[in-house]
Automatic annotation (TrEMBL):
Domain of life where this protein originates: Bacteria
Name of the molecule in the record: RanBP2-type domain-containing protein
GO molecular function: zinc ion binding
InterPro entries associated with the record: DUF2007 (IPR018551), Znf_RanBP2 (IPR001876)
Limits of the RanBP2-type domain: 75-103
Pfam family, one: DUF2007
Keywords from the UniProt entry: Metal-binding, Zinc, Zinc-finger
Organism the protein comes from: Photobacterium proteolyticum
Amino acid sequence: MGGPWIKVYDAANNLEAYSLKGMLESEHIEVQLSGECLSSATGELPTDVLQVGVWVREEQVQLARQQLAQYEHTAASSWNCPQCAEHNEGQFEICWQCGCDRP
Ligand SMILES: [Zn+2]
């Protein structure tokens, strides 16, 4: 361990960055986030406009990319209900709000 840090992902906000960090760390991947210190330094920047870089060690890049690909696949398969516009996660086949079928 101890290779250079490589950025593998640009998270849209702190929340996503931390959930990715948790996911990668559960696979024993060492993670550093960049950008988060900016928001905590001012305390006023809205967290949702700041991109946060997700960095891992060079030797763990491949493993991290596999995990991120899985994450993106799950995120991409979520859907919005055509009837009530409720956002549903990818694992639901009907809208949990109104019971409408997935389009
Ligand atoms: Zn619905």
